[in-house]
């Protein structure tokens, strides 16, 4: 995904991510997830949804999605980390 935004917005996102000790990618992913996943409950997600709704940016999903169990996600992360490094694939012209 390519995202073009004003420099001041990018800087605000960078600072917000830093305050939460997250990468910008992780922070933006969490914000977009909270903005579009109605199954996320909690005050932070609710506040974000309210702000997006007031700005006219809240997208309502017709489908409800369930998050996979933590164990399943953790297993997928372990398996993903055990693969061949991208740098190796590139150097082998694969």
What does this structure look like?
The chain has one domain. Helices cover 60% and strands 0% of the residues. The protein has 5 helices and no strands. The model has no long low-confidence stretch (mean pLDDT 81).
Structure, briefly:
This protein has five helices and no strands.
Question: Which range best describes the helical content: under 10%, 10-25%, 25-40%, 40-55%, 55-70% or over 70%?
Answer: 55-70%
General shape? extended
β-sheet strand percentage: under 5%
Number of strands: 0
Residue windows where pLDDT falls under 50 for at least 5 positions: none
What tags apply to this protein structure?
mainly alpha, 94 residues, 60% helix, single chain
Annotate the secondary structure layout:
Blueprint: H1 7-19, H2 24-36, H3 43-54, H4 70-81, H5 86-91
Helix pairs in contact: 1-2, 2-3
